[in-house]
Amino acid sequence: MVDVTPHDESGVPPAEVPELELYHPKSWWTTYVFSQDAKTIAIQYSGTAIAIGFVALVLSWLMRLQLGFPGTFDFITPEAYYQFVTMHGMIMVIYLLTALFLGGFGNYLIPLMVGARDMVFPYINMLSYWIYLLAVLVLVVSFFAPGGPTGAGWTLYPPQAILSGTPGGQGAGIILMLVSLILFIIGFTMGGLNYVVTVIQGRTRGMTLMRLPLTVWGIFTATVMALLAFPALFVACVMMLFDRLLGTSFFMPALVDAGEQLSYGGGSPILFQHLFWFFGHPEVYIVALPAFGIVSDLISTHARKNIFGYRMMVWAIIIIGALSFVVWAHHMYVSGMHPWFGFFFATTTLIIAIPTAIKVYNWVLTLWRGDIHLRVPMLFALAFIVTFVNGGLTGLFLGNVVVDVPLSDTMFVVAHFHMVMGVAPILVIFGAIYHWYPKITGRMFHEGMAQFHFWVTFLGAYAIFFPMHYVGLVGVPRRYPEIGDTAFVPDSVQDLNAFITMAALIVGFAQIVFLFNIFWSLRHGREAGGNPWRATSLEWQTPTTPPPHGNWGDHVPVVYRWAYDYSVPGASQDFIAQNDPGTGIKAPRPA
Amino acid sequence: MSVILVFLLVVFGFSLWWLSQQRLLSKPWTEQGLAVDPSHRGEAAMPTAKIALGIFLAVVGALFALFASAYFMRMEYSDWQAPPVPSVIWANTAILVAASIALEIAARTARDGRIDISRVALAIAGAATLVFLAGQLVAWQQLSLAGHYLEVNPANGFFYLLTGMHGLHIIGGLIALGFTLVALSAQAPISGQLQLRVELCAMYWHFLLFVWLGLLVLLAGWAGDFIAICKQVLT
Ligand code: HEM
Ligand SMILES: [Cu+2]
């Protein structure tokens, strides 16, 4: 190995993409509010997403209260229940998970991990957040609109979505929902362009694509997918707005509503479903791929081992991303389709399971004989793997047309998708927040509170969703506020429902511990130092912690190796940072 | 959904080509030291803004491909009738072509540093585009005078929707073009940065012209004829 000090950059080829000129804020407003620093924007995105996520959590309590103790709460009318289901689902999927993974983690981690000083278009990046905030506000306003928010289900299927029988259908609810989604998509596109172009153009010298941490690969691929998939939702929303406001019949067939013949005619609800699921299925992976990437990094760091099969992991991410655009119609088995199409979509759905399974094997093989440290981020990562496998298995069942048809629209489906795309990504989010908290704030979180939060959330989630599979198998349909007397549902299901509700309340309250910990540790947490997990990737090598504006001080780091040099035989430490030029030489100590 | 799938195929093909240059087969765990980035081939890298615009145009392309998909699917239903085609859109098309040509001239002269020609060409392009937008409004007016309101049948709905969407994108471009024109008028020796901006305007205009021609094919009913021919050939 050549003997160079890290700051002697002779022999390093000059950068080809000129460094961007940093915008230097001049006032308090431009530093903390209208900030163009990706790290600040990340925190704004995350804070907003978590805040609106708590609204969705409260809505889930209300739903569970109704399901567990039907008839006890007068204010939960069937209409209100539909509204809760709809808003809960929509907020969780789009305004929480998508915004948090891409807008939150994407903004914080991409520039730091690729060795850039900021996103390539900081101004547009800032606009992206403010438009997202506007979308959230419009969504919140719809709760107070006359007639309340829409109750059309998070899928917003027409024709019912804009008819008088659906809450908010003839009121402002559905309009505000659609406008909010359109704003979200516009805002996201601005941010998304930044994330993609920063990965392509902003990488520091030596940072080849194959040296990127998998977190960046996951977020990058998910963003590309989102850029191509969200337009479908955009088209669906715009056309539905036309139907609702201007009387066109894109989606609306001729129908009689409340005894009155409407002026619509000839439109196709199926058309909407195609557009919606062309977005909706990739959306699942838009949430999953960043989670996959982050989990890979958490596992590797906390097991002190290089990730097993890095190349395969990268390829799998790309293949999953591409394939997930040709499976959308598996959500429409019950809408009726040509059996050949059904066969095609069932096949592609099952094929996606292969790269996904490869990823799971690789995580497990990374753990194999690793030096596993069961710290809180690691606990969450392990919990994710278990949960994801669990939800993935029931997904294999549902991917088959014959199995899906009877189970479709039962609580079994609800249990399945909460496992894979509810609980699993949320576990990763918690793990990631705990993992990067010391970098973001410079302090450690309180270990005891975090452990408590983990165990209650993990076990509680199982207490909620395991029994729910059974409830679904018995035949309890989804989106029903209560089932009443049926021939097929035994009374004992009601006891189970009450149990699930108790568990949901407990899990919900445990999240307050999480929030408390986050704020409490800001002040009272132990000083974390620059690299408490002794990790290799660039974000842990910043000159100061939290990273300064511009991230790197005077010298942008130069990358000499991949992100997974843990426990390298013969090295002086059990990790070698990416910007460490040679095995014998220590990287500049982060402060 | 065939239009969007074809479009995706193109995007994926392009991504694959790009990825194939990124040494995805390399074994990063065996390579220490300063791997020279494969995209570092000595020549200057493509400007960041150009890449960003390219990706943005892919998103816009996906948007219109999805609209086209929806159009075709909606066409299958029994109440479909061909959309009315107001005659003024042919003139509009010619004007948009002219705007594109003017921008191309502006970009080329800017590259050669002939800033006064570039400035004039850019202004002409902007003016022509404004005329195009006015012409589109005239088309809407012609339609509604003839009783072809938005809600009367789905084809009308698509006509207003698609021309409107396209127009909104044009307006966005005009704003950028306006700023470029101001900058161009203020600067005597033209900077590389400014050359790039003019070039990006041209790129955006060509793309929107392309989209417009695609929409024209849809709305004028040629696409339907084409499909009918394909079906006949297949059966
Ligand atoms: C404490 C955690 C949660 C609880 C107790 C919970 C509970 C529920 C309940 C009771 C329903 C309605 C079932 C029905 O009647 O159809 C529901 C629907 C739904 N939830 Fe959750 N949920 C939780 C977290 C999440 C998360 C994290 C996500 C993120 C993906 C999510 C996404 C959805 C979706 C998409 C629906 C379907 C909405 C619809 O049918 O339109 N949930 N949830
Ligand atoms: Cu799916």
UniProtKB/TrEMBL annotation, chain A:
Transmembrane segments: 42-62, 82-110, 130-152, 172-193, 214-242, 284-300, 312-334, 340-364, 376-399, 411-434, 454-476, 496-520
GO biological process, one term: aerobic respiration
Keywords, comma-separated and alphabetical: Electron transport, Heme, Iron, Membrane, Metal-binding, Respiratory chain, Transmembrane, Transmembrane helix, Transport
UniProt membrane topology term: Multi-pass membrane protein
Gene Ontology molecular function terms on file: cytochrome-c oxidase activity; heme binding
Chief localisation class: membrane
An annotated GO cellular component: membrane
Pfam family, any one: COX1
Record keyword Iron present: yes
SUPFAM superfamilies according to UniProt: Cytochrome c oxidase subunit I-like
InterPro entries: Cyt_c_oxase-like_su1_dom (IPR023616), Cyt_c_oxase-like_su1_sf (IPR036927), Cyt_C_Oxase_1 (IPR000883), Cyt_c_Oxase_su1_BS (IPR023615)
Residue span, Cytochrome oxidase subunit I profile domain: 23-560
PROSITE patterns given in the database record: COX1 (PS50855), COX1_CUB (PS00077)
Subcellular locations according to the entry: Membrane
Source organism, top-level taxon: Bacteria
Sequence similarity: Belongs to the heme-copper respiratory oxidase family.
Name recorded for this polypeptide: Cytochrome c oxidase subunit I
Originating organism: Oricola cellulosilytica
From TrEMBL, chain B:
DNA repair listed as a keyword: no
Keywords: Membrane, Transmembrane, Transmembrane helix
Compartment(s): Cell membrane; Membrane
Gene Ontology MF terms: cytochrome-c oxidase activity
One example of a Gene Ontology biological process annotation: aerobic electron transport chain
Superkingdom assignment: Bacteria
GO cellular component: plasma membrane
Topology relative to the membrane: Multi-pass membrane protein
Residues annotated as domain Heme-copper oxidase subunit III family profile: 1-224
Main location: membrane
Membrane-traversing stretches: 50-72, 120-139, 159-184, 204-224
Cited CDD domains: Heme_Cu_Oxidase_III_2
Protein family according to the UniProt entry: Belongs to the cytochrome c oxidase subunit 3 family.
PANTHER family: CYTOCHROME C OXIDASE (PTHR11403:SF10), CYTOCHROME C OXIDASE SUBUNIT III (PTHR11403)
Protein name per Swiss-Prot or TrEMBL: Cytochrome-c oxidase
Organism: Oricola cellulosilytica
